[in-house]
Write a structure and sequence with these properties.
Layout lengths: L2 E5 L2 E4 L4 E8 L7 E7 L6 E7 L5 E3 L7 E6 L4 E6 L8 E8 L3 H9 L7 E2 L3 E6 L1
């Protein structure tokens, strides 16, 4: 059974930083994709960033480029999201998700507006105050 355990959320002032972690069990980082999505109240879920486990390729939503950095420690089966220069618009529940498809396939679906992933974890709340 795949389990994705996200942690690191919290309350931070605008301009601050947070680091999210997602520990995966039952899912080996091997030619697949893992990353982060978010959902704000009254809004649809959106992709934030994903990373391909085979070569470290990364995808970022335009809204977080230059501010967020995704990384993974394959030996620990853990993916991280370093969030800097946080804005109130970043307030959302952040979810860790993973997919058995390779990076190119997943990103191609993203570009068509499809954000289905094979596995989802419970979210962690990120609140950015102004």
């Amino acid at each position: 059974e795949v389990q994705l355990q996200a942690s690191g959320g919290g309350l931070v002032q605008a301009g601050g930083s947070l680091r999210l972690s997602c520990a995966a069990s039952g899912f080996t980082f091997d030619d697949n994709v893992i990353g982060w999505f978010r959902q704000a109240p009254g809004k649809e879920r959106e992709v934030v960033s994903v990373i391909g486990s085979s070569d470290g390729s990364t995808y970022y939503a335009d809204s977080v480029k230059g501010r967020f950095t995704i990384s993974s420690d394959n030996a620990k089966n853990t993916v991280y999201l370093q969030m800097n220069s946080l804005k109130p618009d970043d307030t959302a529940v952040y979810y860790c998700a993973a997919d058995d498809s390779d990076y190119a396939v997943v990103v191609a679906f993203f570009r068509q507006g499809y954000y289905g992933m094979d596995y989802w974890g419970k979210g962690t709340q990120v609140t950015v105050s102004s």
